[in-house]
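Need tokens for this chain, all 137 residues.
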Amino acid sequence: MPQLQKSTQTSLSEINMVPFIDVVLVLLIIFMITAPILQSGIEVDVPKTHTVKEINEERLVVTMDKNQLIYLGNDPVNIHQLVDKIRKRQKHENDSVFLRADESIPFGAFCTVIDALRTGGINNISIVTQPISDRSR
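Here are the structure tokens for all 137 residues:
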């Protein structure tokens, strides 16, 4: 019995895109979930108030955490170098600075940071608070 020789001389010249698309979509979902978490990397429980003004502008943020450590953005900063580093990052002379402070820190430590900013010539300071949610409505 003669054997039939079966050979295919065609090669696959196309790349299968389905696994690539699957990986890209999974990465997109991961980044969409983690992006809001990365915006403020320092854990701070800001005080709650009734009057809250939402501002959408990009501003410098000074943060004091529960351990009274001071951060400019997400970078730890010594209070004596705070004004110099703010001046380097400011785009305009009169740019406002957000001050986020944990509600459990002593008022004296909070005032020390405000005094350091004002002594350095930064007078436009906005204090970050969180709105009180009215569940009784």
